[in-house]
Structure formats: structure tokens, C-alpha cells
Amino acid sequence: MSNKQLFEKKAISEENNHQTYSTASTSRLLSSPVDKNTNIDTNSDKLALEDGAPNEPQSRMVSKYFFLLVKYIPVFLKEVFQLFDDTTERSHLVMTLQELVNRENKVRLRDNHVCKNNEPISDENEIKNMEPKSDSHTVYVERKGKFYKMKRSIFRKEQEMNMRQESTGLAGQLALYAKYLPSTYQDVVSAYILQHRYHNVSMIMQGFLSGLTVAEAVFAFNFANEELLLQGYRWMSLPVHVVFTICFTIGCISAYDRTHFYGWNLSSIRKTLSHSGIIGVVLWSMGLVATVVCIRFDESLAPIVEKPLLTEELLLYWRICSAVRAVCASSAWLLLALRPDCVYIVKGNIFKNYNINEYSST
């Protein structure tokens, strides 16, 4: 039999097998009962099931990749966050600097030994025995791109001050400076603390004083008559005078302290007069003078006087002084309230030029 006949016979047999498979599948479909309530998409469901069988390895691969992502994403994020962490970078810098210093000391010791004895060092233990003991009380602090030597105790105190700096005001910061700085600066810091508290108290007092003086001026011009003054205000005249005198004295001292005096030269005097604080000095001085002048009226109404003499001249005199006090106290307080940072001496950067190298010597 030739090759051509064998090939034709093989093709005929394959065609017969295909026809038998198609007839069998057709008969199977015809023999199976069809339910009327079934969905039209049954063939599509069967195709989906048949297609899902060979896709099982692909679904496993997807689940495997998802598991790997869930596992390694936190590690990746942790590495990313560490790139923006300054504390780890600074600690690495300090450790690197310490390693460089130790290595330099070892090289120096080796060179000194070779120069003296003309013998090389072969054992590392000999180098360790020759190394001086490192000072455990010394640390290296990085500031402005440079490393500075500082005692460990001073470094801890400075860290404590930095932690409390956000929650405390200027007085608290000055108190911390007075506690940790050398004795040379403690007297100066104590003076700054006292001055800062004095200005705070005087500012609160000036606000109350401006309201009281305005109220007294309104009372003096609208409600005060001879009968009311002799029966009611007589018992309050001296206490009111003492309170006003003390408050105006405190305000006048605070105004002088807030103003800087540049010198006795003509240009310096002009510069002093052009300073904004000189207006407060003038206002508080006028109010203090008006308060002191009112002593004549207040003594005439005092309870110690058996027969008080109240004339129209004294009443007009008291009303004018009350108006002057009200205008001066209110204007000075508004001037201070609009510029609460006009204190000349008290500053937040008192120790701005304080050399950090002095820490290591204290």
C-alpha cells in the first residue's frame, strides 16, 4: 500500500470519529428534558463553568500576589517613613562621629607606639589596652551643621528646658534658665523674672484703673452734690485717694521702665523724646500729679474733720482733677494695650549670644 492510500484512509477514519462525536452530543442534548422555568442563559452558565476550570491556576496566582502585597506593604511604608525621621539620622551621625574619633585615636596610638619602639603592633588587644578610657559624661551635639562637645548632665537639662518651653511662658523659661545656668547669670535672670512679673501686674492694674477713673469722673460731673458727698462719699474719700495714688505710682514706674534713655547729648535727647514710650511717661505723670493735688479735697471731707467745709471752688477743683485722671489713665492704658510688646529690657532671646562652648567648661 502506498503512502497516498494510507493518508486517505487516516483522513476518512478521523472524519468518521468526528461525525460519531457530534451525533452523540446531539442525541444527549435531545434526550435531556428541558425545563420551561429555567433561565435563557443556561448555555452561558455552562460555558462559564467550562471556562473556569482551566483558569483555576490563574486565580491562585492572583491570591498569592495579593497575599504578598499585604505582607510587604507595611515593611515598605516603614522604610519610607524612616527616610523622613530626623532622630534616626542624627543618632547615626553621632554614632558615625564617635566611630571616627575612636578610629583616629587608634591610629594615633599605633603611630606613637611605632615611633617610640620601632615595633609594629600586631594584636588588637594591645591597642585596646593602650586606649584612654572614654569620658562617659561627654556627648556630641549637632547644631547648625557642626558638632559640639557638651556634658551629658547639661544636655539632659537642656532637653528638659526644651520640653517645657512650649507649655511655659517667658517667666517659666527664665526660671529654668536661672535654675540651670551658672551662678554668674542667676542674679541677672532673677531681675528679668521680677521685671516681667511687675509689668504683667501693672498692665492688669492699669486696665482696672482706667475704668475706675472714668466711673469717678462720671459720678463727679453728673451725680455728686453737697448732700451726697457729705453723707456717703465722706467715708470713702481717703481710701479712694490712697488707691489712686498707689495705682498711678505703679503705672508711672512701669512707663519709665518701658522707655529707653539714650543719653544726655542733644541728638540722644531728641531720640529719647521721639520714642513712643515717652507719651506714656507724660500721661502717667500728669495723672499722678492730678491725684496728688486732689488731697486737698479728700482731706476736707475726711471723717477726722469734725466740721467739713465743702465749697463750690473745691468741688470744681475736684471735678477737673477727676477728668484729667480719667483722660490720662484711659489714654495710657489704650496706648499700652495696642502695643503690649513695648517692654524695652525684657526680651525672649536674652541668651541669644550665649556661647555653647561654655557648657563644656562649666
Please give a handful of descriptors for the protein shown.
single chain, 362 residues, mainly alpha, two-stranded antiparallel sheet, 2 strands, elongated
Fold blueprint:
Blueprint: H1 3-31, H2 42-52, H3 56-83, H4 86-117, H5 124-130, E1 138-143, E2 146-151, H6 152-165, H7 170-180, H8 183-222, H9 226-231, H10 237-258, H11 266-273, H12 277-293, H13 295-300, H14 312-338, H15 358-361
Antiparallel strand pairs: 1-2
Low-pLDDT segments = 18-56, 83-97, 114-128, 130-135, 344-362
Measured by DSSP, the beta-strand proportion falls in under 5%
Strand/helix succession: HHHHHEEHHHHHHHHHH
Shape: elongated
In round numbers, the mean pLDDT is 67
> Count the strands?
2
* Strand order, sheet with most strands: 1-2
The percentage helix is: over 70%
| C-alpha Rg (nearest Å) | 48 Å
Number of helices: 15
The largest pleated sheet is described as: 2 strands, antiparallel
- Structural class, from secondary structure content? mainly alpha
Cα distance spanning the termini:
116 Å
Function: Component of the transition zone in primary cilia. Required for ciliogenesis.
Membrane topology: Multi-pass membrane protein
Subcellular location: Cell projection, Cilium; Membrane
Biased composition (Basic and acidic residues): 1-17
Entry summary:
This protein has 362 residues and is mainly α. It has helices at residues 3-31, 42-52, 56-83, 86-117, 124-130, 152-165, 170-180, 183-222, 226-231, 237-258, 266-273, 277-293, 295-300, 312-338, 358-361; strands at 138-143, 146-151.
